[in-house]
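Report of the visiting student (M.T.), summer placement. My assignment was to run the structure pipeline on a short list of targets and document each run. The first record concerns Hedgehog 2.
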Amino acid sequence: MQGVCKLFLTVSFACLFLGSTTRACTGRASQQSKGPRQSTPLTLRQRVPNVSENTLGASGPPDGRIHRDNPKFDELLPPNNNADILYKDEEGTGADRRMSKRCKDKLNSLAISVMNQWPGILLRVTEAWDEDGHHDENSLHYEGRAVDITTSDKDRTKYGMLARLAVEAGFDWVSFESKTWVHCSVKSDSSEAAKSGGCFPADSLVTLRNGETRTMADLQIGDKVKVVDKSSGLVTFSDVITFLDRDPSKDTLYRVIQTDRPGYTATLTPQHVLYVSDTNSSFTDSRAMFASDVHTGQYLYTPVTLAGTSLVSLSWSCTVV
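After the run finished, the structure tokens were exported:
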């Protein structure tokens, strides 16, 4: 259930120190259990998360087009020469191999998932970076942050599951937008949220499947923690598979946000994505904001069911990249 809390105190900053307050960010939790895959294919027109592509809760706003004559072109858009991926390359220029580093990483992960799901079948890219202006003005294709994909056998019955695999591979926004392809995109390589996501201090609590609470510092790979499925909004449990940012040797600046509802206080890094509204209204009227931009008097939604994953401190939801 979504709740809404009003921010009634001035948002304050707190510098939390080493030891029990080490910052920790879990990696994207795996939704698959050992044994046969239990993942549910996306349906036609379904988006994950179910927000607009250019919002902070998804892939974020465009940074600007990248042109081939940019002196840093090869650095910004390195070619992806993964032999396990087929490229349509209808332009004959190699443009479909050009993509941001984050997009390349997610695509390579997806290629492995596709081969595991359908032996003998490869991932196929029909569009990546675009230099010809064939897309909408704010398209992330122009900066190599978006790809359109199919399977090598072009079997449309596979595309719903392909979209689900893309979500699990870590793409920041996936849309099963056509019967003939799946669209995926990522946050900018320069985005702080893309580098580490939002983090919590290590003494924040999560809930395990057996009902036990455990601090972020004590979490272990393989622990099953309470999460929110961002495609359905349902609370479930999922495995911790990695820590994207766990640094016991560094002091970190955190933002403390307190609401008018007793017990609803959050300590998190400024780049955490939250959903807020200026009025006490429904979730559909909210917008995504970084924690650093939240101000007194706004209304905060908890947990963030459309963009969150780990449920922290029993009442807080975080976005994990």
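The radius of gyration is 20 Å. Confidence is low (pLDDT under 50) at residues 6-37, 303-321. I thank the supervising group for their guidance throughout the placement.
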